[in-house]
Amino acid sequence: MSEQLDNSPAIKVGVDDGHDGIKLWFGSANAISEPVKVQIKSNAQKGNGGIVDVSERELNQMTVIVEGQNGEEDEVFLVNANHVTNRIDTRTPDYPYNNLNLALIMQAIREQRSVLDGFNRLQIVAGLPANQYYTKLTSSKNDELIDKKVNNLKSINRAYSPADAQLEDGGRFYASDVAVMPEGYGIAFNLMFDDDLNKTEYYEDFYDHGCVIVDIGGRTVDVIKVSRRTCKPKGSDLMSFDQGILYMREAVATAVTERLNRQKTIDDFSVDNILKSGWFGKVGSKGGVDLNDMLDKIKDDHVEVIYQSIKSALESDEAMGGVIISGGGAVLLGDKLKAKIEDHDDNCEVIIPDEVVFGNAKGFWKLAWAKFQ
């Protein structure tokens, strides 16, 4: 199987397996053009019960089974943003290398199965939060955790969906090569190189001056300093803290629940709609509730916490080369954090790239091309 796998066509995949969402960016082994991107919510529950309003076919499409190892039982997950009723909290220490992580990534891959026809070998670059990738006391890599994540992704063939049973090999994918990088560096690499891996103007700027990447993720906010002259992350000056977008979502859910005098906290689906529209219920209707002022204050408060946590990093020499705000959380908080930094730090040029959601995934995809020839 190993020799057959190594000779089969490969897909390069950049994996940003966040606590709030899974983002993938991949392309074929024969060309670096026409990449495909995928995004799903990190919403899953254990088992396949509790869903009564869907057909058996739909249920099978949501189901991902992860085969047990060393005598352990298989685990069954339902992965679906709209139908999951008992969402598993992804903010656990073992998330980077557990079965839930595999199930979520597999379901994201399955979203574009038609594009992957004929390809079942993957070459993956994924990430870890900066404070997990490095051991700060020694500024060295956390080899034990990195190896756990690499080995977990290499076992992605353990994850499959019963909906794909009729496909060749049961619709399974195999990872022949896996590398792990610090989250945030994918964003920098994406800016430094174009889709043909040619150096961009950002590369020259980062080479001469360095930069600071602020990656607002689901669980963590990662701050990576990219060193001048090397264009590589500095393990000695990393920063990562638990103030990602999931914590702001919890603040929204709590505030709205109290505002409406409800006994039960509003669900994730309602929070999504509030974040999109600023309203609970139908926008502009008599039965709807305008929450824009409340939402704006929650965002301001969250940005203030992030700014207070990162302001020491903004005094570094690398910040003179630019501060890049990216990550899925930048969609909601990027403009406010940019304004906050510019109000207090006159010498900081703050940039919000076009691809804030897929910055890490696309950068990891480019790193896969650089690493796996």
Question: Would you mind describing this structure in some detail?
Answer:
The chain has 373 residues and is α+β, with helices and mostly antiparallel strands. The chain has a domain at 2-43 and 88-192 and 359-371: ATPase, nucleotide binding domain (Nucleotidyltransferase, domain 5). The protein is built from twelve helices and 18 strands. The strands form five sheets. Strands 3-2-1-7-11 form a five-stranded mixed sheet. Helix 8 (245-259) runs antiparallel to helix 10 (292-310) and helix 10 crosses helix 11. The longest helix has 19 residues, at 292-310. The model has no long low-confidence stretch (mean pLDDT 90).
Brief write-up:
With 373 residues, the chain is of the alpha+beta class. It has helices at 2-7, 56-62, 99-110, 130-133, 143-154, 185-192, 201-209, 245-259, 268-277, 292-310, 330-344, 359-371; strands spanning 10-17, 21-27, 36-41, 44-46, 63-66, 75-79, 121-128, 134-135, 140-141, 159-160, 174-182, 211-216, 221-226, 239-241, 279-280, 289-290, 323-326, 350-351.
Question: How do the helices and strands line up, and which of them pair or pack?
Answer:
Layout: H1 2-7, E1 10-17, E2 21-27, E3 36-41, E4 44-46, H2 56-62, E5 63-66, E6 75-79, H3 99-110, E7 121-128, H4 130-133, E8 134-135, E9 140-141, H5 143-154, E10 159-160, E11 174-182, H6 185-192, H7 201-209, E12 211-216, E13 221-226, E14 239-241, H8 245-259, H9 268-277, E15 279-280, E16 289-290, H10 292-310, E17 323-326, H11 330-344, E18 350-351, H12 359-371
Parallel strand pairs: 1-7, 7-11, 12-17, 17-18
Antiparallel strand pairs: 1-2, 2-3, 4-6, 5-6, 5-10, 8-9, 12-13, 13-14, 15-16
